[in-house]
Amino acid sequence: MGLKTFSSRSHASRGMIGFDFKEITKTTPEKSLTVSLKKKSARNNTGMITVRHVGGAHKRKYRLIDFKRTKVDVSAKVAAIEYDPNRTSRIALIHYIDGQKAYIIAPVGLNVGDSVVSSDKADIKPGNCLSLSAIPVGTVIHNIEMRPGKGGQICRGAGSSATLAGKGDKYCQVRLPSGELKQILSTCKASIGQVGNTDNENIKLGKAGRSRWRGIRPSVRGMAMNPVDHPLGGGEGVGKGHHPVTPWGVPCKGYKTRHNKRTDSSIINRRK
User: Fold this and answer.
1) What is the tally of helices (H) and strands (E) in the chain?
2) What is the mean pLDDT of the segment spanning 16-35?
């Protein structure tokens, strides 16, 4: 995997940085593992916009990813590394020895021809899936379950990873990318390694059109709006610098919005 810098032949390509896609070995997805993805433009059944700045995007198919890794003690071989337009990470197509196929998130160091398995007796190598109780302390992990059998929910984006910081009888302590220390049931599963495509953070879109291809619509500053549309709107000239708020007056950019007492007990050290 690597980056590609475009030559400055236009205002759009000046400073544009993209992927070279050298790690991709298969350009078309497995048909049996894809479903159609209907566009809704972030509107509900009445046509009202429920999520701002979403709409458009290139037509795409959704790839069915196996986040649960429920096929236990059955070895599989990596057949291809593919691009997935629905996520920042790359995905790996694996073929089980019984003939079944599946997609998993491709970690760093997983190559075509490698063998992966979901088992508590598996080796500690990228792509294998084990229970937290079977993973040594200090191991880098991703695709971590929060409830047994629900499937991985934490650390699925490009370049993300967590560290198993400690183990107990019932719970294990996991250090998340945010710095938060969280305790998770020891029976929950996690995959070994760091999620691949680590250069994703260095991408420069270069022009507004590439955001539209991704389904990201323009966002207008509140100060540029009228008073009827935004709390920061209106006035003559530039304002005196109010704290940023949403169109509904809720503070943002640093304002903590977490109110979930049910899971507060699982947090040992909060994020910074």
Assistant:
1) 1, 17
2) 96
